[in-house]
Amino acid sequence: xxxxxxxxxxxxxxxxxxxxxxxxxxxxxxxxxxxxxxxxxxxxxxxxxxxxxxxxxxxxxxxxxxxxxxxxxxxxxxxxxxxxxxxxxxxxxxxxxxxxxxxxxxxxxxxxxxxxxxxxxxxxxxxxxxxxxxxxxxxxxxxxxxxxxxxxxxxxxxxxxxxxxxxxxxxxxxxxxx
Length: 178
Description:
This protein is an all-beta fold.
């Protein structure tokens, strides 16, 4: 593993480390593909040039009541009720957390909703649509996937119903459709 230099104190640090061992400052997680500036793990845009650091997700965070959004499949982040609308044109959505250092860009990023602290894996679970039915599958996550308080088996698509409660690590979601 190579070393990087802490931008705060100049001390060498292991590549992939989140914080400098010497001063405790947050370390850049990668390099901007546009201007080559160091970028933070949680950044969506480069602080130096504004370039987007990853593709736009296939999920929209919806606020307020929008009839079109309410007809589409969606996940409600509980208890706050943030709505993550899933794009109806897509048949599969990986749920996890964005991590540019490892190249992880799931369609549903739970980092803004406590995913990292809540034990959500980078590629935790996947929701798939088949014949107008929805299924969730655990992708061999560390902290498991639960539907209505029942642990689901890794690699076995489990049918989802409107109103089902999904728990990924300690992050709680409600699946809504229609």
